[in-house]
Amino acid sequence: MEWFKCPVCGKNLVQIAPDAVCQGVYIKCKKCPAVVEVKIARKEPEPLSLSRKTLEKL
Question: Which whole-number Å values give the CA distances from 17 to 9, 12, 39, in the listed order?
Answer without folding.
Answer: 22, 14, 13
